[in-house]
Amino acid sequence: MSQAATIVRSTPASRIAGLIALAVLAGIAAAPLWASSADLRLITEILFYLALASMWNLLAGYAGLISVGQHAYVGLGGYLMFSCVLFLGMNPLWSIPVAGLAGAALSVPVAWLVFRLKGPYFAIGTWVVAEVFRLSAAQMASVGGGSGLSIPVSVMRDLGSKDQRETLIYLTAFVLCVGAIALVYLLLRSRVGLALTAIRDNEIASSSLGVRIGRIKLFVYVAAASVTTMIGTLIFITKLRISPDAAFSVNDWTVFVIFIVVIGGIGTIEGPILGTLLYFLLREFLADLGAIYLMILGALAIVIMLAAPKGLWGLVVQRFDFSIFPVGYRVRRK
Asked: Is 5 helix (H, G, I), strand (E, B) or coil?
């Protein structure tokens, strides 16, 4: 006699984990009430990298778009913020949605160009685009040229006292980070998510079944570019100064982000979270080692890629079949 079965997304374990995650999220949201100024700045930076990693994971882990030029949009966000502040007299925080729209609009012609390239040529093409952005910024004397410029002190005073500014920036970073993760989660639970899964598993087969691969990839690329641009805007609000090399740093905004996703688990929502926490833990303990610190990070990434190609969270899924953010379907026997 055959057993009845139902199709479900979540399990009792994932529901309990979800409740714990919500409690942790509430504690992080209340950080301005319990964290010191130094801790608040550190958590803000963690939120930046988690949001950037989630967007890169959406591109590479689900759409198969291995971009090594996402720092183009981080730098773009920073320069858009400075332009809005200096030339339009805009409040720095209000420039964030403006930068998001501008980043989305600019990413369309960029996508039209780089989508003509495949595989490693696509990755190189995205890096070349980022270099074009950097060189263009270095030639613009109105925003400091190659030497860069700083935000006028009077502009930051409009955001209130030092403590008020830190709280505003922290809460904005929290909203952007949670929004980035929620965007990935909701996309993967939608029809777009089904299409992305099909594309990731077999692009040729999914195309033969009617999946509009070009449109799906364009949508994902534009969405990731928009969110990355907004994050870049907020990053440089915290830094108060910008220069082409800092804004379009491939190490800071792409290499470290790729490292986070690779060690955490590419193609999972939980992977970038685990990878971000591990990266900052290693950075706090090993940063004093200088160049050796970078060598350790590189060696760790190689070891994990060889031993666990799906990252550390991939090992958890393989061993325990567990997910905090269930997006796929599973069969449950009654």
From this structure: strand
Q: Are 237 and 88 in contact (CB under 8 A)?
A: no
Radius of gyration of the chain (CA): 21
Backbone angles phi, psi at 330, to 5 degrees: -140, 160
Tens digits of per-residue pLDDT, 61-83?
888 899 999 999 999 999 999 99
CA dist list (Å): 111 to 69, 125, 210, 283:
12, 10, 22, 34
The residues with which 5 forms a beta bridge, in sequence order, are: 333
The domain limits of the chain are: 31-248
Length of the chain counted residue by residue: 334
Structure tokens at 8: 């479900």
At 8, give phi and psi (nearest 5°): -130, 165
CA 288 from chain center: how many Å?
26
pLDDT in tens, 91-108: 899 999 999 999 999 999
- Under 8 Å between Cβ of 268 and 314: yes
16 C-beta neighbours (distance < 10 Å), count: 11
Q: Residue 178 contacts by C-beta under 8 Å, 6 or more apart in sequence?
A: 25
In this prediction the pTM is 0.93
Strands 241-242 and 149-150: antiparallel
